[in-house]
Amino acid sequence: MDVVSIFAVVRKIRIAKFINGSFHKTGERGCQPDVAFYIGLDFQLPPQDNPPIDVNVFGPPTLAIEIGGSSSKDDLGAKRLLYERLGVGEYWVVNVAEQQVLAFAVAEGGSRQIRVSGVLPGLELALVEEALGRSQTEDDTILMGWLMETLA
User: What is the domain-level CATH number for residue 106?
Assistant: First the structure.
């Protein structure tokens, strides 16, 4: 999710991005979100190699994102519950085909739907959806330029 990375750069927010990273927590099923981010000043940078990241040592990712052509029942059901148990800060399900983002703030073992990110303060999900729409008709240079200008 380039929007997250560009937002963080423009707002000077520390992040670490993991594409298809594996996360494991003792006593819990492991997970492999399409994209995951550690966000903020307080995280310890996990290793950038292939072994699963131990959530007991490094904490859960701040943001976990599943990307697909349509929002599957698994993404909104079992995976959402798993991310709640792991304690991620936010969980996004990105429906590329419909240019829609279903985002959830996770707290106290549950979650609620949001339209403005709490882990990336001020990032409106409508902007992410607009970027998804533009990505269907614009090349990356134009899209990233628009994002940089919009977020500046």
Answer: 3.90.1570.10
